Amino acid sequence: MVPAAIATFYFVSAIGAATTPPSGHVPCGASKIDTAIAHCPSNFPCADLDVSDCLECFCPTDCKYGDSATARCTVADEDIRCDGERWFDVQFTCQYCFQSKAHQDYECEANYECSAAAGTEVDRHYTANCTISDPDFLCLGRREFLRREKCNWTAGIRWTTALALSVTLGGFGADR
């Protein structure tokens, strides 16, 4: 369950106007609305606008992890011209953004400087900046987050490639 202590506050949109969350809801999937509003299409159905760029969504505080839940969304800025209701419901799976599926829902920056063959287990990981890649993916928390990722490089070559070369060329003594 989402902590109820964060349920009562105002969400300040990119233009500085306060939007009051519906009762029992908190802002979900904080995004880069301030830089993206200019990219929102005009005369488009409001319910079809991108969650990450054009909408402010509020998730229920009592949703259970992994279950389907309903968020209340509104158009993020009064200057966005769209057709239909400006407040509407959006279905989503109750989970924090960092709990979503790697390489499916989010992408992380690669680090080509770390080594999969480093000394300790700690040295074989790096801290990556990750971002939810689908603009319509709704989740709790921040859409940008840090995550520990495994290094996948050995002397500038992907670990799996190095293994394949070692097995193939090693049989001919080319690795000597």
Question: If you had to describe this structure to a student in words, what would you say it looks like?
Answer:
The protein has helices spanning 33-36, 51-54, 159-170, and strands spanning 11-12, 18-19, 25-27, 44-45, 55-60, 68-75, 82-83, 87-93, 106-108, 125-132, 144-150, 153-154, 157-158. The protein is mainly β and 176 residues long. The strands form five sheets. Strands 3-5-6-8 form a four-stranded antiparallel β-sheet. A hairpin with a 7-residue loop joins strand 5 and strand 6 (68-75). The longest helix has 12 residues, at 159-170. It starts with 10 loop residues before the first strand and ends in a 6-residue tail after the last helix. Residues 2-18 have low confidence and may be disordered.
Helix/strand layout:
Elements: E1 11-12, E2 18-19, E3 25-27, H1 33-36, E4 44-45, H2 51-54, E5 55-60, E6 68-75, E7 82-83, E8 87-93, E9 106-108, E10 125-132, E11 144-150, E12 153-154, E13 157-158, H3 159-170
Parallel strand pairs: 4-7
Antiparallel strand pairs: 1-2, 3-5, 5-6, 6-8, 9-10, 10-11, 12-13
Oligomer: single chain
Main beta-sheet annotation: 4 strands, antiparallel
> Alpha-carbon distance between the termini?
57 Å
Q: Which residue ranges are poorly predicted, with pLDDT under 50 across at least 5 consecutive positions?
A: 2-18
Biggest sheet strand order reads 3-5-6-8
Q: SSE order, as H and E?
A: EEEHEHEEEEEEEEEH
Bulk shape: elongated
List how many beta strands DSSP finds. Answer: 13
Helix count equals 3
Main structural class: mainly beta
What is the gyration radius calculated from CA atoms?
A: 22 Å
**Helicity, in percent?**
10-25%
**What is the total domain count?**
1
Strand content: 25-35%
